Amino acid sequence: MSTGVAGLACGVVGLACGVAGSTCGVAGLTCGVAGLTCGVAEPAAGVVGHTGGMRIYLPATLAMLREIDADSAVGPAPLTGFAVTPALREWYLDDDEEVLEYAAFTQAARAALRLLDADPLAPRRRVVLSADVPDHEVTLHPDLDRAVVRSTVPIPLDRLASVHVDGADAEPDVAAAAKVIMEADLGDEDAQFTVDGTEDHELEWYAVQEIPQLLS
Q1: What's the pTM?
Q2: What Pfam families does the database record attribute to this sequence (predicted)?
């Protein structure tokens, strides 16, 4: 089951739908499975006070996701991810939580390209994991980038809120971007143009319980 709102979609911002097939009320999203979360912004996502701590976005690949499913945890620690940090808020000068969450999510999707570059055998699809991590287990790293955080411990599968994966139609553009992501990071404009091409593809949303189906 998947959706897409500017690549962010269900599970990044959430309100329990509660009834299979019900719509959440924002952009007409349909959950399709009872109890899944989607649709409207939850209070203070990504900051202290968010349910479960801080919402962080972890880059991954389908190969990594298979290991995560087998281990029932994301690890080993430390785990680098992206979140709505004070530095990100200051940079954007925007108090719209959905805008800030999308900015962090987008950086995680870009980081997934670096993982694909490092693993040429992994399917050419970006993966981003949304997780809620207790505040005391997260450290901020503005020295690396404004949104960079690290989880100091492995993250159990039950702390994942959702999984976001490229559809099959994105594979050619993602493959091309993964080949040049390092050049883009170094400022090559042609490489950045190729990487920007992945923004035409919204990552599809999956519930955590759908991981085995996604990997089958």
Answers
A1: 0.77
A2: DUF6912
